[in-house]
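Hi C.,

You asked whether I'd gotten around to modeling the 500-residue construct. I have! Everything is below, sequence then structure, no commentary in between.
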Amino acid sequence: MYQALLTRRYLTSKIMPLLAAVAVMLCTAMVLITWSVMGGFLNMLLASGRTLMGDALITWPVVGIPHYQELIDELRADPLIAAATPTIETPALLAVPTGDTLMVQAVGVEPESYSAVTGFKDTIWWRPLEKPLPKDLDRRDIRLRMPNDNLLRAAMALALPGPGGEEIPAAVLGIEAGGLNRRDPGGWYDPVMLMLGYDSVTLSVLPLSRAGVVVDVQKRAFPVANQFRTGLYEVDAKSVIVPLATLQEMLGLDEAVRVESAAPLGAAVGQDGRESFTRPSVIGRDPARATSILIRGAPGSTPQTVRDRAQEIYARFYDSKGDAEGLPRPTRIHILTWDERPNVAQFIGVVKKETSLVLFIFGVVSLTSVFLVFAIFWAMVSEKTRDVGILRAVGAGRSGVAWLFLRYGLTLGVVGSILGGALAYTVVRNINPIHEWLGSALGIYVWDPRVYYFSVIPNQVDPVKAAMVVVTGVVCAVVGALVPALKAARMDPVRALRWE
């Protein structure tokens, strides 16, 4: 019996507090690892989206923005704006060399200015590579053996040399479009159905009138100059980039001559009795149009400040041109930050909700540390009843007794949370080697980049998030010790001294 009593006292005084600290440590590490990885994916998505679209945009779909080059010049003159570029975006059908026809988003761009806003040049995939990817231990990526960057130059020109020396408009496809490449688990691609510069794709678009009525189907073959990869699967699988002027022509958004509609066309007899061919008189020209203007802010600016400045500049530009030029009113045109675009905002909102849901679930699971600390401290207070009675008998106040147990809980919380933060940091920083080891040693591949698209798992720990999780772990430990501490403080000294 005496041995059992000693064992119980040892467990209560040594092992159980250690278990409480371990519980706080594991819960802290679990939440921080989840937040770091899920938040890392969200940050990667946001970075990819901003890279593709710039900071803000002015857009007027279907009809397009006339005099867009003049507007771009005014935007570029503002010190808050570093670059701006016109684009056209339209749904299209893409026939690829595999024989499949895909529904894609056709984007017409001016490559140099588009790259200045979005970093398009850095997304070009087929280009000479100096160093292999981290998982390419055997240097199997064919880009390591490319002799020059002719493919990159062709992509940045969106053109290939023709038979007579003239340039032929070319297309740059998303790396995942049409299944033309096979992706290795290490993150690189092998072309299986595509020869750049030789194979062509056929792009079909539907020009629309200003009333939204389909005018006619326009299709054109484009040789494939290169492919791009942004990191957003939806973009890389469903986008094709072509020259702006070519897409303007296909959609009827290029410059056009305006004639007198009432003028007859055909043969007419003059006063001298001779027939002559009459043509409508030219009364003006309709300027070329772009459906969007993408804007990159100067260093230090935010997408919101760039959007607000673009609204001011467009209002001044409209005042100088007026309705007669076909410009939409400032109150009607869409001027948005990149993440306020309808499809993008919805996608980012879903990812944020999923991240919040996962964190909420793990947060609820982590509340077990509160109840575990509570149970352990309740047992400790019960076991230390005589000790509490002695303290009260020699003059210790209720607050002093309560603070004694709360301080113990605070100490365990601090130790457990700090160790949990250190464990989470170690795991997150080494999560890719750990995943590789699990795959090679146990055959467990939780993260397949061919499915999740990113070739690596995010491995950055945000110091602010880490501090929040560690402080929360400490608070949970104190909360768990609170009720037992109050129980100890309310003990009657006489009854406590008689407790066996």
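If it helps when you're writing up: Residues 2-45+350-498 form one domain.

Thanks,
B.
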